[in-house]
Structure formats: C-alpha cells, structure tokens
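Hi U.,

Before I forget, here's the chain from the pilot set. I'm dumping it here mostly so it's searchable later in email.
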Amino acid sequence: MHKAVTFGEIRAIVSRIDRVSICMRETMAYENFRFISEVPHSYDGKYLYGFGLIESEFEGEDGWGHLPCLEIMLSEEPKEGKEP
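Structure:
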C-alpha cells in the first residue's frame, strides 16, 4: 500500500518557473496558474492523484494559446490500491 500525499506536501518541490494546471479528479475542472506561488493554499489539503506534462490555455506574448505546463491532478479522497 502506498502513502497518500497531499498537494501541501509537494508544493515546495514543484518547479517555481513552470506554468501549472490544477485539475480536480471528481469534476475534471481545472485552473491554470503561471507559477506555483499563485496556486491558492486551499488546495494544500487535497490528495495528489497524478501529474504530468500537458498543453493548456494560457496568455502569452501573442495573446491566448496552448502552452506547455505541469498538470497536477488532485482529489478529495486519497488514491486507493497498490502501485505496480
């Protein structure tokens, strides 16, 4: 069995210079942030469900467009089951 990890536990080790998209597993709703420091602390108690690189909509030099970012999927409940 693996240990459930909260977003608050990983916040300090997430890149400070990359864009971040926070996605909630239960609703698939997401919020995009230019930097990890802009992510509200209200997410700190949510459980890490997964993460990866995606492209999402951000405002850039030429207006809005799809830019690379780190997607962090969070959940209200810890992920269950064994990891391979």
